[in-house]
Amino acid sequence: MRNPDKNRFLKAVAHQETGEIPFFELQVDIEITDKILERPLPPHLLSFELPIPDYVELNSRIGNDMIFFSHIWRLGRKETKDAFGRIHYVDGIMKTPESMRDIWYPDIDMLKGRLEKLLELARPKGFGIICQVQTAPFVVATAMGYQDYWLNTLTNPSFVHEFTKRIHEWTFKELELYLKYPIDGIKIGSAFVTNKGPMCSPEMLEEFELSYARQQVTIAKQASKIIFLHIDGNIANMIPNFIEMGIDVINPIETCDGKQDIYDIKCKYGDRIALCGNIDINGVLLNGTAEQVKSDVVKHIEGLADGGGYIVASSHDIHDLIPIENFYAMREAVHEYKFK
What is the residue range of 319's domain? Predict the structure, then answer.
């Protein structure tokens, strides 16, 4: 297995061809993490919530060139644990303007300590670091509950905007913290797109989500950081807007049951934005053989990496039903590939 090298990723983002292809899998399910690290871990954790030494070791075994730094802001969430101890979101409880009195904020000092430890352990190994800034509309939607969130955008939009503004103001503190350190990029996210496209009109999407993201992008770009956008669903028609915003990399480019074609996206926009993902978690990774996975990865590389601008990753996260052999096959296909 090769050593991590953030320059593979950075050159791909800059649309420079290299002799190797970058690999950046953001998250693996905790059950898959158990198998990779070969020991049981607390089932309520997400992989990026592990103690930093364990997290660096996990990324080394994954074969990543970059490490994803994040945390979960569980504001107002009603959650439940299943029989295995895993946490599942049920609904939000902050459904009225009065509930904003119960807003609490993450511990900046805790984030600072974890990031400093990550940089201490990861950078000497060759890893790059991508830090996620919290997305205020997503925090608000999960705190309020999705159904009530969308109802309030129509019946009480001032409540939604005021709630989002209060959360968004804290995200600037988080972003300011990250930009003090030698990280390589900032990840932002979007939660309001499905396999059929956005949940709302372009005007509403701009008002309730993208307008906030643009502010984060502006600050991060002024600090010369790569902007990595994670957005689920069918987003092909939205890419010109993302390019205009200043997005450098888009992930995970889901297949959307055949409705979204990454090769078409590459043809139309590949010279202006880098693509990361698309190895299908509910297709070849779930149901294929290891050889089929390797073949699909090679197909992606040969169809998308010309001129740079492609990073191999799954079409979302590595969930617990994916055979570990198939995950390793994806990693090995990337590590073994040599451009002709």
Answer: 6-75+119-138+175-336
